[in-house]
Amino acid sequence: MTTYQTAVLDLEILKKQTFTYVILDESQQIRNKNSKVFKALHTLHTKYKISLSGTPIENSLSDLWSQMEFINPKILGSYAFFKEHFQTPIEKLRDAQTIQNLKTLVDPFILRRTKEQVAPDLPELIEKVHYSEMSVEQAKVFEREKSAARNHLLGLDKSGGQYKMHVLASLTKLRQIANHPKLADENYTDESGKFDDITSQIQTIVRSNHKVLVFSSFKAHLQLVSTWLEGENIPYVLLTGDHSSDQRQDAVHAFQENEGIQVFLISIKAGGTGLNLTAADYVFILDPWWNPFVERQAIARAHRIGQQNNVMVTRFISKNSIEEKILLLQESKKSLSSDIIDLAEMPDLSEDNLELLLG
User: Fold this and answer.
1) Which of 111, 145, 166 marks a domain boundary?
2) CA 166, 61, 117, 314: dihedral to nearest 10 degrees?
3) What are the phi and psi torsion angles at 260 (to 5°)?
4) Which of helix, strand or coil describes residue 130?
5) Spatial contact of 141 and 188, defined as CB atoms under 8 Å apart
6) 325 pLDDT tier (thresholds 50, 70, 90)
7) What is the pLDDT of residues 206-226, one digit of tens each?
8) Whether residue 249 is found in the same domain as residue 179
């Protein structure tokens, strides 16, 4: 057994071996065809290959190509061929015949088992969306930034290499303000409607002697929550991508075993895989993002084998903000998932998408 990063470092040693099996766990780690990991693993000598993944398509259909290229090289052609004949017709045009052709090609190599098949006796998973009213000042800040972003982005040359960076920066700032304007402006001193709702519900959970996982894609948002927890003398543990493997294990053990620690703050990327947190029966998703499978992986930290209680998931959404539009965009993209392997992809940020998000 080895890690992906260690395999790259030990490549010259591994290349001298002939393996019977090479098995990739969390095989979406090789989704970037230009990465050192992808290139290194393709040089190993083995008779059989197996990939295991809960999210083989995290960002786009190119993720699927990378993993199929490892399992069965050239089954989907070169990436240039795949992009022209499959990825573009499916992601841009939703061409039904192309979807069916791709499904026919990959089906023989995919064994899919759902959570219901693996663990049919799991307690119920209950999901809801909590809509928060932005505070008066928060709403003013959001509208000002949205107008500025719309005028800026819709006036840019979309063929320029920096366009997508400007788009991401603008959308990220709007998402931050929808959470708490302090994330975008440290000098902001007013309230956030969503933050007030989050902290109120955490208090209720703690008083009821339950445990909650709190996920956000913004470390600064988790820091705001942690500062509030400290002010309320509520014990918690924190996990972000900055923590080492040992620190991860220490945090998990403390949350699972210490009844006095009822809140676990986790950056959504750091908590997507490899954590068993069945002590929690509540999950908070503080901010939505394009890919619902990142959220599904986060929820699966609590809703998994070993869970004895029903799990309540709450997604916090600020009303009249970009977050409502992101939910709509997620829904509009889910059809591709079930058509191929019941998974979804990141949306293409076309001009139509921008008009939806900034409208």
Assistant:
1) 111
2) 10
3) -80, -15
4) strand
5) yes
6) confident
7) 999 999 999 999 999 999 999
8) yes
H or E segment at 127?
strand 125-132
Q: What is the DSSP track for 10-79? A: THHHHTT-EEEEEEEESGGGG--TTSHHHHHHTT-EEEEEEEE-S-S-SSSHHHHHHHHHHHSTTTT--H
Residue 193 shares a structural domain with residue 294: yes
- Tell me, yes or no, whether 56 and 183 share the same domain: no
Q: What percent of the chain has pLDDT over 90?
A: 55
CA 268-234-257 angle, 5° bins: 70
Q: Where are the alpha helices (DSSP H) in the chain?
A: 4-9, 11-14, 36-41, 61-71, 79-82, 88-93, 96-106, 115-118, 136-153, 163-179, 193-207, 219-231, 245-257, 292-299, 322-340, 351-358
Q: Do 132 and 86 fall within a single domain? A: no
Mark which of 67, 86, 111 sits at the end of a domain. 111
pTM over 0.90: no
Angle at which helix 163-179 crosses helix 351-358, to 10 degrees, equals: 20
For residues 4 and 103, give the distance between their C-alpha atoms in angstroms, rounded to a whole number: 28
Mean of per-residue pLDDT scores for the chain: 87
Cα dihedral 214/219/222/228 (nearest 10): 170
Q: How far apart, in whole angstroms, are the C-alpha atoms of residue 180 and residue 134?
A: 9
Q: Identify the residue whose tokens are 């991401």.
A: 168
Q: How many domains does the chain have?
A: 2
Report the CATH number that the domain containing residue 188 is assigned in CATH: 3.40.50.300
Residue 184: closest CA among 150, 214, 221: 221
Same domain, 170 and 271: yes
Two tokens, residue 276: 């068993």
What domain range includes position 315?
118-358
